[in-house]
Amino acid sequence: MTTRRQFLATSAAAVLASPPGPLFLREWGNARRPPSPERRGGQGVGTGARFPIGFSTLGCPEWTWKQILDFAQAHDYAAVELRGIQKNMDLTLAPELSREGGRIEESKRELRERGLRISDLGASAELHEQDPAKRAAQLDEARRFIDLAETLRAPYVRVFGNKYVKGVPRDMMLAHIARGLRELGDYAKPKGVTVLIESHGDFTDSPSLLEILQQAASPNVALLWDAHHTFVSGKEAPEDTVRQLGRYIRHTHLKDSVPAGPDGKDRRYVLTGTGEVPVRRQVEALAHSGYRGLYSFEWEKRWHPDIAEPEVAFAQFATVAGGYLRGAGVTELPAQ
Question: Does pTM top 0.85 for this prediction?
Answer without folding.
Answer: yes
